[in-house]
Design brief:
By secondary structure, this protein is α+β, with helices and mostly antiparallel strands. 34% of the residues lie in helices and 32% in strands.
Length: 106
């Protein structure tokens, strides 16, 4: 098994085609999807995958992200409702590319 470094890259089979995804592409997708659906004043996305690479449950090719979101729109709802909204928006990415996600709402 090859070691993955901070600029992690992995291959995925999708409709019999190999799809290349790296952390920078994933962060851009997450950012775009959230900003299309929610009015956000501040959005920080951090790759925390390196903290988990030696853990027993670590899955190569799946990333660990930390989201810090300041949104007046989300502030109108409970943290649970706001978190569910984020999960709903990122449903595909959570299934295919994200092993774990930490969401901090300000």
């Amino acid at each position: 098994s090859k070691q993955l470094f901070q600029s992690q890259i992995f291959f995925m089979l999708y409709n019999n085609k190999i799809v290349l995804m790296n952390i920078n592409e994933l962060i851009a997708i997450v950012k775009n999807k959230l900003e299309e659906e929610i009015i956000i004043q501040v959005l920080k996305i951090e790759d925390k995958s390196f903290l988990h690479k030696n853990h027993a449950g670590h899955q190569e090719g799946k990333f660990h992200l930390k989201l810090i979101i300041k949104s007046d729109e989300l502030a109108k709802f409970s943290k649970i409702a706001s978190t569910k909204r984020v999960y709903s928006i990122l449903e595909t990415e959570l299934k295919e590319h994200i092993h774990s996600i930490q969401i901090l709402l300000n």
